[in-house]
Amino acid sequence: TAYARFADLTGNGREDLVVCGFGDFDQGRLAWFESEGDGRFREHVLIDRSGALRAEVHDFTGNGRLDLLVLMAQARNELVFFENLGGGRFRSRQLMEQFPGYGYNDFLVADFNEDGHPDLLTVNGNNMEIEDPPLRNYHGLRIYLNDGNMSFKEAYFYPMYGALRAVAGDFTGNGRLDVAAISFFPDWEAEHPETFIFLANRGGLRFRPYTLDETRWG
Question: pTM of the entire structure?
Answer without folding.
Answer: 0.92
